[in-house]
Design goal:
Elements: H1 13-28, H2 32-44, H3 48-60, H4 68-80, H5 84-96, H6 100-110, H7 113-125, H8 129-141, H9 147-172
Helix pairs in contact: 1-2, 2-3, 3-4, 3-5, 4-5, 5-6, 5-7, 6-7, 7-8, 8-9
Length: 177
């Protein structure tokens, strides 16, 4: 029995997987309250995927008013349980709030190509081409990255390198075609 006198239910991983699948189906069907309750049950039992989804429910206000603090709570808990995508989600929250130092720190923790692309885009907004190129190259080489992010990084990298090449030619007086 727990401190409150209620027994805490323990779940097997297969039970959590089943609950996660049920929650996902409820979400897809638009039964948001049911999905939320199922995700909450799994999240409290320690399922990091459910913790990320619960954070998203709170962040985006899915079926409820948005709650930034609850979103951060669940994302951080998921990150502590090994869910790197949760670090990216925290980074997005801070980026959207223009808290760039915190955003960069959380994107770095994600250790994936999609987060590297987010960092590169932040550096591009600050007109810091050197750091942007570094993170675009990391995105292109990353093993864990979506194809869309890799494609975007490759296109941005080509464009930046062309711009740098043109600027260098203009500075030396060479004709640009």
């Amino acid at each position: 029995m727990g401190k409150s006198g209620f027994q805490t239910k323990r779940y097997q991983q297969s039970d959590l997987d089943h609950l996660f699948q049920r929650a996902d189906k409820e979400w897809e069907a638009g039964r948001l309250k049911s999905a939320f309750r199922l995700f909450l049950t799994c999240a409290k039992a320690g399922d990091s995927g459910c913790q990320v989804n619960l954070g998203t429910f709170y962040r985006d206000g899915i079926g409820m008013k948005p709650n930034r603090d609850r979103a951060l709570y669940w994302y951080r808990r998921a990150y502590r349980n090994g869910e790197r995508t949760a670090a990216s989600n925290v980074g997005v929250l801070y980026r959207d709030e223009r808290k760039l130092k915190q955003a960069l720190a959380w994107f770095e923790r994600a250790k994936d190509g999609d987060a590297d692309l987010a960092i590169a885009l932040m550096y591009l907004q600050e007109n810091d081409r050197t750091n942007a190129i570094h993170y675009l190259e990391r995105t292109c080489k990353a093993e864990c990255v979506t194809e869309a992010s890799r494609d975007e990084a490759q296109q941005l990298l080509k464009r930046l390198l062309r711009q740098i090449g043109r600027a260098g030619k203009k500075a030396t007086g060479t004709k640009v075609q």
